[in-house]
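We now fix the convention by which a protein and its fold are recorded. The integers have meaning only within a learned vocabulary of local backbone shapes. A complete example follows; check for yourself that the lines match position by position.
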Amino acid sequence: MGALVTIGGSLREASFMFWETLWALVLGFGLSGAVQAFVSRSQMQRVLGHHGPAALTRGSLLGMASSSCSYAASALAKSLFQRGADFTAAMVFMFASTNLVAELGIVLWLLIGWQFTLAEFAGGAIMIVLLGLLMPRLVPPRLVTAARERLDRSAAERGDHDPAGPARQEHPGERDSLATRLRQPAAGPTRPVTRSPT
């Protein structure tokens, strides 16, 4: 009887924990799908395409805003990297998403004091700085290139595509000429030209 009570209590606690982390899972995987569906490679490279201070700061702030659990943060970082983000920037995003969680800082402040909230954010910032400094020097570029190529092959096999289409050079006046063509009425069906016998 005692074993059944223990098992029941464990299942209840597990269900409570699942319910409390469900929102983070849904948010993280939803954002991952949105990145793959709506963010083009050129847009991602413009925002997180390198590991300079500005890109790492943007990655940290975006990670704080996502505040996902570890599984969802890993999936989202993979989507960012696959879409063209720098590997270090994607890893910074993942660590910020799990270590610079705004709502966790609020809970810590309310329950055990502001010192723990300060420690959380200070430790997360130190970790991000170390990642930005060490990861480009510890991870060989060939491994990053191989990983990106493998993800690209996997996406091609699944039929995924860049929402902005293939990148190409736009010539001056091309956009205006395209808009002019779109404003023109569609031509009706053409009749075949027949020649009378001579």
In short: The first helix runs from residue 2 to 38. Confidence is low (pLDDT under 50) at residues 164-183, 186-193. DSSP finds nine helices and no strands in the chain.
